[in-house]
Amino acid sequence: MTGWLLLAALAVVGLAPFVREWRKPPMTDARRADAPGALARLSQGVTHYRWYGGGEGPVAVCVHGLTTPSFVWDALAEEMVAQGWRVLTYDLYGRGWSDRPPGPQTRAFFLEQLEEIIRHEGIKGDITLIGYSMGGAIATCYAAKNPHMLRRLVLIAPAGMGQVPGRFDRFCARVPVLGDWLFRLGFPPRHRRAAAALHRNEGVAAEVAGAQAAELNTRGFVAAILSSRRGMLSEVLEGEHRAIAAERLPVQAVWATADTAIPIANMGRLTAWNRAAHQVQIKGASHWVPLTHPKEIARALRSG
After folding, report:
1. What per-residue confidence (pLDDT) applies to 4?
2. H or E element in which residue 140 lies
3. How far apart, in whole angstroms, are the C-alpha atoms of residue 213 and residue 207?
4. Which of 8, 87, 116, 202 has the smallest C-beta neighbourhood within 10 Å, fewest atoms?
5. Mean pLDDT in residue range 218-235
6. Nearest-10 crossing angle of helices 2-22, 178-200
7. CA 22, chain centre distance (Å)
8. Domain layout of the chain by residue ranges
9. pLDDT for the residue numbered 165
10. For residue 62, what are the β-bridge partners?
11. 283-287, long-range: CB < 8 A, 24+ apart
């Protein structure tokens, strides 16, 4: 009997992270009722998007990063609108108000969403494509594939430069089953602590930090983060950057000097891959730079 009890206890412990995830509510149209912006029903699911600005100004399309949905662009978008831009932001699948479709979150997965939202909105080209963190990797892949669509590529603390994740994330990404279990156990408390530090240490508004933490409340978010680490974030994009350089597409990179996630040493790597890239540093900024230094990024965009 003792053996059976032990096995039952182990089963409960083993299944707990998966059961906890299953009990979370999925993203539905009812939950999206108060979402700002609009919804596009694309081939892989519903995508939430939002336009800032109007008129006939130049168009910027913004791709956010691994864990922070499109609200990461709010302050920067307002700064850009004041400069005359029209700005399109959207939530990557697995984040924000967009659907959480199953399956690998690879380059092809994210490029299909980006290409479809651009077509959905009738954008014919002349785009300034802005990518932050993992969004920088997605934007780089899009630019290498579709240089004719772009006026300029802007990369803010971009992934795809060969950055090495922590030991825990590497293990979870490489090991199936056990890695899934450990990630579902260990990632949520880390994410909550990071969200709290965003308000406490970075001076970001409490409601923004709260929205960051609240991503954990929807089924599929944690799985999406792990899938992206196994997919899009596993790539080193040297070939794509060299192809962009060969096309002579203007590239601007914005780096944060206190970034511990995407180190500023990657400036040298980008220089080696694309000597024509215009690069700027924002001193004292961390990886949360779009949230903490939108005015400085806007100034860099204006001068780039």
Report:
1. 55
2. helix 134-145
3. 10
4. 8
5. 96
6. 50
7. 24
8. 29-165+235-303
9. 79
10. 89, 130
11. 283/257, 284/257, 284/258, 285/256, 285/257, 285/258, 285/259, 286/202, 286/256, 286/258, 286/259, 286/260, 287/133, 287/157, 287/256, 287/259, 287/260, 287/261, 287/262
**119-157 pLDDT tens trace:** 999 999 999 999 999 999 999 999 999 999 999 999 999
> What is the DSSP secondary structure assignment for residue 72, as one 8-state letter?
G
Check: CB of residue 136 under 8 Å from CB of residue 107: no
- Domain 29-165+235-303: give its CATH code: 3.40.50.1820
| Tokens 């579902």 -> residue | 184
Q: What percent of the chain has pLDDT over 90?
A: 87
Phi, psi of 176 (to 5 degrees): -70, 160
Tokens matching residue 170: 């590497």
Higher-pLDDT residue of 247, 12: 247
CB 46 within 8 A of CB 39: yes
Question: Do the strands 45-52 and 59-63 form a parallel or antiparallel pair, or are they unpaired?
Answer: unpaired
Take residue 27 and report the two structure tokens written for it: 């993203």
Q: What mean pLDDT value characterizes the chain?
A: 93
Q: With contact defined as beta carbons under 8 Å apart, do 192 and 213 qualify? A: yes
Which among 133, 157, 131, 156 is positioned nearest to 144, based on CA atoms?
A: 131
Whether the pLDDT of residue 38 is over 90: the answer is: yes
Report CA-CA distances (Å) from 41 to 46, 47, 51, 120, 121.
4, 6, 16, 9, 12
pLDDT of residue 231: 97
pLDDT band of residue 208 (cuts 50, 70, 90) is: very high
Spell out the SS3 assignment of 152-183: EEEEECCCCCCCCCCHHHHHHHHCCCHHHHHH
Q: Is the dihedral of CA 262, 240, 87, 29 positive or negative?
A: negative
pTM (2 d.p.): 0.94
